[in-house]
Design brief:
CATH architecture of the largest domain: 3-Layer(aba) Sandwich
Helix content: 40-55%
Protein name: Glutathione S-transferase family protein
GO molecular function: transferase activity
Organism: Rhizobium tropici
Number of helices: 10
Oligomer: single chain
Keywords: Transferase
């Protein structure tokens, strides 16, 4: 069975996993999860990930894998020949894993206070405090990553890796939160522009926006959550 990636809309961090699958070029399917619907957890997706988050991946063996970092490392293990990922135990793998870990913890989590305000609100004093704290965290994460990137064309050097795919899915969240100007971080801004021109990134945007698009990778089409569950049971 080809892998099935469950991706969240709008603007889920699962975006990076879609880009990664396109870059890797192997057969896969996608399953859309509307995270804004209050009843999305009442359907089949709660059997995929009881935590109620995306992405989730049904592997070619029918196993369920959640969390972006785990999914990207799993996908990368099958695409070492592409240069997008590396064999565990090598120095290159350690560098990639470190960057994924930074993006998953410091960069991703810096937006958490802002997302809470955006999604839940609260009294004005609490919202102001969370915005101030979130703004500080996001600016610090951008400044740190901008220094780490330096003048390198990609996060790890001369060649793009799965870390670059994951980066973009998170970095675009500044569109929701007016706390940082990407232009103030020129290295990040350069990388962001470069990635936005990538065909796999344009494909992922079109998938999220439900626009017609042609895959340059191994995309075999979208599948509903309930149909995905049926396929899993048939292959069990």
């Amino acid at each position: 069975m080809e892998p099935i990636l469950f991706y969240g809309v709008p603007s889920g961090c699962s975006f990076g996993s879609i880009v990664a699958l396109e870059w890797l070029g192997k057969p896969y399917r996608l399953s859309r999860v509307e995270m804004v619907k209050e009843d999305f957890m009442s359907g089949g997706y709660r059997f995929i990930n009881p935590v109620g988050e995306t992405p989730a991946l049904i592997t070619s063996n029918g196993a369920v894998l959640t969390e972006s970092m785990a999914i990207l490392n799993h996908l990368g293990a099958g695409g070492i020949d592409t240069g997008l990922a590396f064999a565990q135990g090598t120095e290159e793998f350690d560098r990639l894993n470190r960057m994924l870990a930074y993006l998953n913890t410091s960069f991703f989590s810096s937006f958490a206070p802002l997302w809470y305000v955006y999604e839940h609100g609260g009294d004005e004093a609490a919202k102001a405090a969370l915005r101030a704290y979130g703004g500080f965290k996001v600016r610090k994460a951008h400044a740190d990553l901008d220094r780490m990137l330096g003048d390198k064309p990609w996060l790890l050097g001369d060649q793009k890796t799965l870390a670059d795919a994951y980066f973009l899915g998170i970095a675009r969240w500044t569109e929701y939160h007016d706390v940082v100007e990407r232009a103030d971080y020129p290295n990040i801004a350069r990388l962001y522009r470069q990635l936005e021109e990538d065909p796999a990134v344009k494909f992922a945007h079109a998938i999220e926006d439900e626009k017609p698009v042609t895959s340059a990778g191994g995309y075999l089409g979208n599948i509903g959550v309930d149909d995905a569950l049926k396929r899993i049971r048939l292959n069990a």
